[in-house]
Design brief:
The chain is α+β, with helices and mostly antiparallel strands and 440 residues long. It contains 10 helices and 20 strands. The strands form 3 sheets. Strands 1, 2, 3, 4, 5, 6 and 7 form a 7-stranded antiparallel beta sheet that branches. It has a 5-stranded mixed beta barrel with strand order 8-15-16-18-20.
């Protein structure tokens, strides 16, 4: 690799992350085909360690570029201290991340899938405005360094994203539904459309709720309200810096015994399945919480070195459940996060509540104090439960609370799980007591 050779002459230690992809994004606007593109992206990120400090730069010239080497070396002069050395050759347990059937998909087939989804929704309700996006991508990732590491992986991905809007006098109801898969036999377009139709059915009527404290069921997508704070607490950097509420709690029962969470990047069926992270570290199964007990934290190379522990294969480019964007340096992120399900169906969880809410989507996810667990969010898609049944959508309503306190209390987990954002496998979570504020 020419870039590695060039950098090796000017820096003490060198790593090159190389990414190439081919994708076909298809976009529908208000039910009509708007655009079809063929996009090719190539790029490389160079990290160097000089005099114990990290430098970073990127380029779209995979053939080598002396300027990008000079930039990386220059940034190292005022970069952060490197708490690690680039690893040598490692044994990778290669998992299957490539599907020839997805790779062979044409733009015409993606257009057909989009039209089918839109037609199904508008047959159910002609007043629905539907925006849709489908993307097929084939990407290759390679991580190589001058200590002998050289790993490579090719992945396929197929996604469907729906934005559904219903406009009535004095009211606009909008929601999102999506699905992502690496393989055709894991891609269920019909299920995605059926979930969207269910949301429309529940929203046919409006049903307000008074301010107070109520049971709340978070759908799999809704669990992100809690998880953004919890993941901040499970981040090894925050633990090392002693800013995490879970610092010093390893091995202690902190949460409800019904809560178990693991990170497993090579999980079968994961839309984000991979063999190694964006630093070339093999992914592994990491128990984070087991029956309410804190079992471990997530680390990349830098934080593992600082904390004198083993990296967990969670150095990911692109942030939370990121997409390996070569332009950003790696940071700690889950690869495939899984919450263990419960034994009751969502229907039974709903039927057990006299008055409360089902919350699916909120505005301003991540607002509040992430480290302390405090959240306060306006709901964008939520439904009232009354006498064990959904009675209609709610609006002008906010939920608030503390993720840690709620997960320490009485919780129930649905037995059905869904993939969210391509990297989270979650059931619904029923919380016993959440603050609900109806805005006047």
């Amino acid at each position: 690799m020419k870039l590695l050779e060039q950098a090796n002459k000017k820096a003490e230690s060198v790593e090159v992350f190389e990414r190439s992809s081919r994708s076909i994004p298809v976009k529908f606007n208000s039910g009509e085909l708007e655009s079809v593109k063929h996009v090719e992206t190539t790029g490389a990120a160079l990290r160097v360690i000089n005099d114990g400090k990290l430098g970073f730069s990127t380029t779209t010239n995979l053939g080598g570029n002396s300027r990008v080497v000079d930039q990386a070396v220059e940034t190292a002069s005022f970069g952060e201290d490197a708490g690690f050395e680039f690893p040598g050759s490692v044994e990778i347990n290669k998992v299957d991340t490539f599907d020839p059937e997805v790779s062979a998909l044409t733009a015409e087939k993606l257009i057909e899938y989009g039209k089918e989804a839109i037609t199904r929704l508008q047959d159910f309700d002609p007043d629905l405005e539907v925006d849709a996006g489908l993307t097929k991508s084939v990407g290759k990732t390679r991580v190589v360094n001058n200590n002998g590491l050289d790993v490579e992986e090719e992945k396929t991905k197929l996604s469907l994203n729906l934005e559904v809007k219903k406009v009535r006098e004095g009211d606009i109801f909008t929601f999102y539904e999506s699905s992502t898969a690496q393989k055709m036999d894991q891609f269920d377009r019909e299920e995605t459309v059926e979930k969207a139709i269910q949301k429309v059915k529940w929203a046919e009527r409006e049903s307000g709720i008074e301010s107070g404290t109520y049971p709340v069921i978070l759908t799999p997508r809704g669990t992100l309200v809690l998880l953004v704070s919890l993941l901040s607490g499970l981040n090894g950097q925050n633990v090392f810096q002693e800013t995490s509420p879970l610092e010093g709690e390893l091995g202690k029962k902190i949460f409800s015994e019904k809560l178990s969470i693991e990170d497993s990047g090579s999980m079968e069926g994961s839309p984000s399945r991979r063999s190694f992270d964006d630093e070339g570290t093999p992914v592994r199964k990491s128990e984070l919480i087991s029956d309410g007990v804190v079992k471990g934290f997530l680390y990349d190379l830098q934080t593992a070195g600082q904390a004198d522990t083993t990296p967990t294969g969670n150095g990911v480019k692109g942030g939370l459940m990121g997409g390996s964007d070569f332009r950003s340096p790696p940071s700690i992120s889950p690869t495939t996060l899984a919450i263990s399900p419960g034994i009751k169906s969502v229907g039974k969880l709903i039927s057990s509540i006299d008055k409360g809410l089902v919350v699916d989507q909120v505005l301003g996810l991540g607002q509040g104090n992430l480290l302390s667990g405090e959240f306060s969010n306006n709901v964008s898609v939520a439904y009232k439960i009354e006498d064990g049944a959904i009675t209609g959508k709610v609006k002008d309503t906010m939920i608030a609370g503390n993720a840690y306190d709620l997960l320490k209390g009485e919780i129930k987990l649905g037995k059905e799980t869904e993939w969210v954002m391509g990297g989270l496998k979650a059931p619904a979570i029923a919380l016993d007591s959440v603050n609900v504020v109806r805005k006047s």
